[in-house]
Amino acid sequence: MGTSKYKRSRGILTFLLSTAVAVAAGLPSQLLAESNPERVAVKFPKTEDRGATSVTVGGGSRGGNEACELAQNKMPLMALMPTSNPERVETTIDPNPTIYVYVPKITDEATTVEGEFLIAEEQGKIVYLAELELPGNNSGIYKLNIPKNAALEIGQDYLWQFAIYCNQADPEQDAFVEGWLRRMQLSPELNRKLEKAEPEQHAQIYADELIWHETLKLTEQLRRSEPGEWQELLISVEHLQEIASEPLLECSAQPSPNDAAVNDAEKLICGQS
User: Fold this and answer.
1) Domain assignment of residue 139, yes or no
2) Domain containing 118: what range?
């Protein structure tokens, strides 16, 4: 994908890829823990590096931009991950997983805030890029679905990043969070566990195997019928406790114009509950 149009993506990737080392470290060993079929509330086992995930901004002043004061919020821009270490690789078996990001209230005015969401290979090639529009006066947990045309390959590491444009003239002042993903193949043993279990037990089975993305997505799918399950899961991860009751918000892709190039960024409108 060409990057000449997307100056922010190029700069952010340069920074992140230059600081990412040994991303394979911290991958969970698979199929060691037995699930507890009698457990009702989904809980994720403790991992290292607990504590609040801090917002990352570029150096220098904020340029007097009053529409983006993330650093002054009680709760920062935050990725829903079980650890605050952005270089830890979280695993998934889904070729098109969902990323969840908490965005605090940015402004009291009913204004639209812009940003971007991207997926990139470990070597820096962008495989998916979306421009975002979201309400600046709402806080909530945003769902970002990786589309089918950007499916993750088994065994490869991918960087994902969610950024808010704080100063249109200076990308160095953007606020962003990021994480690493590796798609795994479903092992025969784990597959047998899932086949023997009831559907409502699947999330805890994934949690016991430290597979975060399936744990989170399956629990989120039960949120309307079993809202307590979602809150229990987030409460079980210390730095996510304070956002357990935040609303879950959707991001929907706008139809592409007929003359759109194959590599053009997708447009996501976010904020629907």
Assistant:
1) yes
2) 7-25+51-185+244-249
Contact status, residue 47 vs residue 28, Cβ threshold 8 Å: no
Q: What is the pLDDT of residue 213?
A: 94
Task: Tell me if 152 is assigned to some domain.
Answer: yes
Calculated CA dihedral for residues 46, 47, 50, 55, nearest 10 degrees? -120
Evaluate whether 216 touches 237 at the Cβ level (below 8 Å). Answer: no
Question: Encoding tokens for residue 26?
Answer: 């911290």
Collect the ranges in the chain with pLDDT lower than 70. Answer: 1-40, 47-74, 84, 86, 255-264
Pairing of strands 157-164, 126-135: unpaired
DSSP 25: T
**Is there a contact between 182 and 155 (Cβ–Cβ < 8 Å)?**
yes
The CATH code of the domain that includes 55 is: 2.60.40.10
Q: Is residue 68 part of a domain?
A: yes
Phi, psi of 41, deg, nearest 5: -75, 130
H or E segment to which residue 196 belongs: helix 188-196
Task: Provide the domain count of the chain.
Answer: 1
Residue 90 phi/psi, 5-degree rounding, is -95, 145
User: Is the overall model pTM greater than 0.90, yes or no?
Assistant: no
Tell me if residue 252 falls in helix, strand or coil.
strand
